[in-house]
Write a structure and sequence with these properties.
heterodimer, A: mainly alpha, 13 helices, B: alpha+beta, 60s Ribosomal Protein L30, Chain: A, Alpha-Beta Plaits, four-stranded antiparallel β-sheet, 11 strands
Chain lengths: 295, 219
């Protein structure tokens, strides 16, 4: 039986060798798959191309879900940024616009890259593309960051899982925001330890977040949670880069997420039997959707 | 659940809206199709847990049928799968189960092929588009189907496993994992063999022809 990797091992490996986390993850992958690094790099690059496509479609006018429940929020945010000085900062709103756009592409049955899931697919590409824009990083830096994010995601998947049906939204948008925070901090020059702290600061903020989609669709509240998940990732990265540490290390936060996920009742794990899904407004939307389905 | 590759975390490239409900469901459909080994004419699908409660909104029904039709999880036609199946004259029935005895995203698929052959498969979508098959026909299994997998049904006699492994070895195919499972029928066993690469049809034929081997399924 293969031993489960941990965040502290990833950080220690990177520190020992004086290299970033992404390099440790890339080399581990090459070893596990028995292939050359350049093949794996190439595949990640192809995935990034799909992410970029979804980012482009996402903020374009006309990007609406099939149900029509959500749509064009990315466009609204970019228009707002042109006119106003965003209260939460330019980068944060830009990332939110991108993330929500990609999430709507997903809800319109468009093509996306699950990261780690489809319901949370907007957060990682939005954060990395925003950081690249803000610090003027080249595409290679983004692809490197995807490996960092994937390494963190693998640890989460091994120790807690990433399915909303199993552990709630904390495991989807929470995991994505955590992965994005670690990758963003490293991309911006943070040490492996700072990057791990960014992940812990972000994930702690999602603990207990349930999966309660209205009418069972990956739209309300999922799409907007992508936007805010992106914002949280950036803020967590900033805090970690400022030297703030998470008193609870990321490995332990991940274990806590697992325990909390186990304790969340089935009614709040993608079954739409409780939470936002059963509010009067949600019931009304559900009724409308069912009528639509019958027509 | 445990990711063996970075591309199980970043990826797959897929059609929305949910990797558990769309990509995973397509994959379960794909595997059921492979287990049947021929085109199907009737499918009876039972949905459990979250699959039963939210299949319409997530398009789980479309995704499972898309998988049965052989589409991949990034096929733009997934949303039209039910119509495509209807056009082909295929009979498809959905049933919703009340219980929560299995993983929340679970489907039972009973397929009838064009030749009248019937198979049963139970699969769960465990997140990020990954699946776990827990039952194939009369066998309780635990098949992740991440690597090429061969299932060899055989008579429980000495030497069968050696012969199958021998054929694989002679063809340069490395076994990475292997498990044995029995059914409630005496003397009947199933080998589940994971390998480092896909098995060519010719090799499958050779294994099918071995003494005491009753059926071979490759996925």
């Amino acid at each position: 039986m293969r031993r489960k990797i941990t965040i502290s091992e990833l950080v220690a490996a990177a520190e020992q060798r004086g290299c970033p986390i992404w390099q440790v993850v890339l080399e581990r992958e090459a070893r596990l798959q028995g292939t050359e690094r350049k093949n794996i790099w190439q595949k990640m690059k192809e995935y990034w191309m799909v992410m970029k496509e979804s980012l482009d479609v996402g903020i374009k006018p006309g990007n609406r879900s099939l149900s029509g429940l959500v749509g064009e929020e990315g466009t609204m945010l970019t228009r707002y940024m042109e006119k106003a000085k965003p209260l939460s900062g330019y980068g944060s709103v830009l990332a939110a616009a991108k993330a929500i756009g990609v999430a709507v592409v997903n809800a319109s049955q468009g093509r996306i890259v699950a990261a780690p899931t489809a319901g949370s697919c907007g957060i990682l590409p939005a954060v990395l593309s925003t950081v690249a824009e803000e610090i003027g990083a080249a595409e290679d830096a983004v692809i490197s960051a995807l490996f960092t994010a994937a390494g963190v995601g693998m640890v989460i998947d091994e120790h807690a899982g990433t399915a909303g049906a199993k552990s709630g939204c904390q495991a989807e948008c929470g995991s994505a925001s955590c992965m994005a925070a670690v990758a963003a901090a490293e991309m911006a020059g943070g040490t492996p330890r700072q990057a791990a702290n960014a992940g812990a600061l972000s994930l702690k903020n999602f603990l207990g977040l349930v999966c309660d989609p209205v009418a069972g669709l990956v739209e309300i509240p999922c799409v907007k949670r992508n936007a805010i998940g992106a914002g949280v990732a950036l803020l967590a990265a900033d805090m970690a880069l400022a030297g703030i540490e998470s008193k609870i290390p990321l490995d332990e936060v991940i274990q806590a997420m697992k325990d909390i996920g186990d304790a969340i009742p089935a009614s709040l794990k993608e079954t739409s039997l409780a939470g936002l899904a059963v509010t009067p407004t949600a019931r009304e939307i559900e009724k409308r959707m069912n009528e639509l389905e019958e027509r | 659940m445990s990711a063996r590759s970075v591309f199980e975390i970043i990826g797959p490239v897929m059609i929305g809206p949910s990797s558990s409900h769309t990509a995973g469901a397509v994959r379960i459909g794909n595997i059921a199709r492979a287990v049947l080994g021929e085109d199907f004419r009737r499918a009876e699908i039972t949905l459990y847990g979250s699959f039963a409660k939210t299949y319409r909104g997530h398009g789980t029904d479309r995704a499972l049928v898309a998988g049965l039709l052989g589409m991949s999880d990034d096929d733009c036609r997934i949303r039209d799968a039910l119509n495509i199946a209807a056009t082909l004259g295929l009979e498809i029935r959905f049933r919703l189960a009340k219980g929560e005895e299995f993983h929340p995203n679970t489907a039972d698929i009973e397929l009838t092929g064009v030749s009248g052959k019937r198979i049963f498969l139970r699969g769960s979508s465990v997140g990020g588009g990954n699946v776990l098959i827990t039952r194939i026909n009369q066998y309780e299994v635990s098949v992740w189907a991440k690597n090429p997998t061969l299932m060899v049904e055989h008579v429980d006699r000495p030497g069968v496993i050696g012969r199958v492994a021998g054929v694989l070895g002679n063809n340069g195919i490395n076994i990475t994992e292997m498990r044995l499972t029995g059914s409630n029928r005496e003397g009947e066993k199933l080998m589940v063999i994971e390998m480092d690469r896909a098995v060519p049809d010719k090799v499958v034929e050779t294994i099918t022809g071995l003494p005491d081997v009753t059926a071979v399924i490759g996925i």
